[in-house]
Amino acid sequence: MILILKPNISLESTEYKTLEAHLQHLTNIEYRVHNVQGASQTLTEIYLIGSTSALAIDEMKAFRAVANVVRISEEYKVLGRHKEDSRGTGFTYQGIEFSQDTLNIFAGLCAVDSPESVETMMKALRENGQTCTRMGAYKPRTSPYSFQGHGPNCLPYVFELAGKYGIKVIAMEVTHESHIAEIDGALEATGRPTGVMLQIGTRNTQNFELLKSVGRQQEFPVLLKRGFGITLDESLHAAEYLASEGNHKVIFGLRGMKTNIGDPHRNMVDFAHVPVVKRLTRMPVCVDPSHSVGSRHRSSDNILDVMHVTAQGVIAGANMILVDFHPNPNVALVDGPQALRLEELPMFLEDVRICREAYEKRLANAS
Ligand code: PEP
Ligand code: MN
Question: Can you give the residue range of the structural domain that contains 61?
Answer without folding.
Answer: 2-72
